[in-house]
Amino acid sequence: MGRNNARHRDSRLRPPQSQRGVALITAILVVALAMIWVSSILWTDTLQKRRVASLLLNDQAMLYALGAESWAHDILKLDLEDGPTDHLTEEWAIPLPPLPVDGGQIEGQLEDLQGRFNVNNLITPAGLPDQISTEIFRRLLESLQLNVSIAEYVIDWIDPDVDVSFPDGAEDDVYSGKTPPYRAANGPMTSISELRAVEGVDAEAYQLLAPHLTALPVGTTININTATVEVLSALSDDISLIDAQSMFDGRIDAPFNSIDEIRNDVSTPVLGQLSVSSDLFQASVLVTLGSNRLYMYSLLERDSAGRVGTRLRSFGVD
Ligand SMILES: [Ca+2]
Ligand SMILES: [Ca+2]
């Protein structure tokens, strides 16, 4: 009897089965929520630490890149002491091999942008098409087996007016019909990547043209010591790609000391657009720190007194 009473008391003290189930589920939920909360804090903390570490790495990479750019300034200053010409066997033209730094490496190279055709030379400072530059560009398009009408399309893109060049120009009426619609720049290009927006320049044409083109201030010369084979060939109808290749190869042992050396190969007006030295270079720097990579492209200008300045910088990361 007494045992029965005790059992009865015990069963009164214990909650019914269904209530125990609810309590258990509640306890599990509380623990789960607490775990989610804790892991959320830990995750946020980890993200925050990663973000800070990444920012620190980016800052560090930026300092390394600017250091490399400063080194490029010095190389170009020193180069002027070796003489007035610029060619591809000089020290500035040798790429910087990967240089180990704390946590990664730096790579870099200098390129003479005046070895390329400057698209902004297609329009004179007065805003009119430059006949000589247009002829050079048309020959370049021909030797790359591209549509020569691209010359007119680029001219209309850059020239300040909205009058369509004859017979193959393209102004706002063409671009406003695209999806999405846009307008011609009607001003100098700041980067040759703008070409992708120009009528007639598809991805394939751009890939072919890009190594031979640059977008610099109007009036720059083409340095015949650094020009690509295709640009050399575009200087005259009389310079075939084979002739240009042998000029290109010949420069390695005997760079041109004067534009007079090709006086017989090009017309006098074209000769006026050439040089054997350069003022505008591009420094390309890649800094790798851990899994972070920083690309920096700097447009460097060297004046006749040997002063070197950075005119423009662009960055990329991956
Ligand atoms: Ca030089
Ligand atoms: Ca225009």
Which helices and strands occur, and which strands form pairs?
Elements: H1 2-13, H2 17-80, E1 96-101, E2 104-112, E3 117-118, H3 131-143, H4 150-158, H5 172-175, H6 203-209, E4 213-214, E5 222-223, H7 229-233, H8 241-253, H9 268-271, E6 274-275, E7 280-289, E8 292-302, E9 308-317
Parallel strand pairs: 3-4, 5-6
Antiparallel strand pairs: 1-2, 2-7, 7-8, 8-9
Helix pairs in contact: 3-4
Question: What's a concise summary of this model?
Answer:
With 318 residues, the chain is of the alpha/beta class.
- Note poorly predicted spans: none
Helix content: 40-55%
Name given to the CATH architecture of the largest domain: Orthogonal Bundle
Number of β-strand runs: 9
Any idea what the shape is?
A: elongated
Main beta sheet: 5 strands, antiparallel
CATH homologous superfamily assignment of the largest domain:
EpsJ-like
Q: What count of domains describes the coordinates? A: 2
Give the termini separation.
Answer: 82 Å
